[in-house]
Amino acid sequence: MSKPRLEGKVALITGAASGIGEAAARLFLEHGASVVVADIQDELGRQVIASINSDKVSYHHCDVRDETQVAAAVAYTVKKYGRLDVLFSNAGIMGPLTGILDLDIQGLDNAMATNVRGVAATIKHAARVMVEGKIKGSIICTASVAACIGGAGPHAYSASKHAVVGLMKTACGELGEHGIRINCISPFGVATPLACEAYGLKPSEVEDNSSALANLKGLVLTTKHVAEAALFLASDESAYVSGQNLAVDGGFTVVSRSSF
User: What keywords are annotated for this sequence in UniProt (predicted)?
Assistant: First the structure.
């Protein structure tokens, strides 16, 4: 068996009670990391911890819209495991699904508060402890193909994910001075609980819809594929990768289907 890629590292993952975050938590643990699962879904989060049954993983309630809770989650991680090497800022919501003419502005505000302000708060507090501890850490933010091209997601969601990529790029220079890397991952459509609930579809229906639109045929994108991209960015294998938006989309955002 190859050497664990995150041996000795400590990771904080937001939105880790389900979907991409849960897949990343399990994969990071398989590769030697200690992991704090942070989420607002307390019952699901505790179920994840119980199913793993390891002293290297723990759950902490965190609503990323509340900066004090973000700061507390970071502090809990450092107190529990002694350091923080990896932040996977993954928590997010879909936001209102209506067209722009009927856009719910309060829904837009909530999407921005969760998907942008929440990411900013996690970067801020995680980076602070990395700088203080002189840790050359890795920060990963979940964006979306909707941050790469128009029409790939609802308006509020797309706007918020564009902002996440912009935030990552501006943070790159400042954090690079401290040896801290920051990158985004932009997945294509994945059958997460978030997507299924938002669209009122079964996982198989989301997968069918995504497969029909996908550029890369013969493979269905799963949360594990996205988690594997996060593992790469968290590990020393990406030691000189920073400021990038890694699209896990099978080429969806670079191929115009209208020409075929």
Answer: NAD
Q: List, for residues 111-166, the tens digit of each pLDDT value.
A: 999 999 999 999 999 999 999 999 999 999 999 999 999 888 899 999 999 999 99
- The Cβ of residue 256 has, within 10 Å, a number of other Cβ atoms equal to 8
The C-alpha torsion from 241 through 185 and 66 to 133, rounded to 10°, is -20
Question: Domains (ranges, CATH) in the chain?
Answer: 10-248 (3.40.50.720)
Query: Which of 59, 76, 81, 157 is flagged as catalytic?
Result: 157
Secondary structure (H, E, C), 148-213? CCCCCCCHHHHHHHHHHHHHHHHHHHHHHCCCCEEEEEEECCCCCHHHHHHHCCCHHHHHHHHHHH
Angle between helices 105-112 and 155-176 (to 10 degrees): 30
CA distances from residue 46 to 16, 42, 58, 82, 133 in whole angstroms, order as listed? 11, 6, 8, 22, 29
| AA letter at 98 | T
Task: Tell me the pLDDT tens digit for each residue of 74-121.
Answer: 999 999 999 999 999 999 999 999 999 999 999 999 999 999 999 999
CA distance 76 to 80: 6
Based on the residue annotation, tell me whether 157 is a catalytic residue of this protein.
yes
Q: Give the separation between CA 206 and CA 121, rounded to whole angstroms.
A: 31
45 to each of 51, 60, 194, how far by Cα in Å? Answer: 10, 8, 15
E strand map for the chain: 10-14, 34-39, 57-61, 86-89, 138-142, 181-187, 245-248
Question: How far is it, in rounded angstroms, from Cα 256 to Cα 220?
Answer: 20
Residue 250 is predicted with a pLDDT of: 92
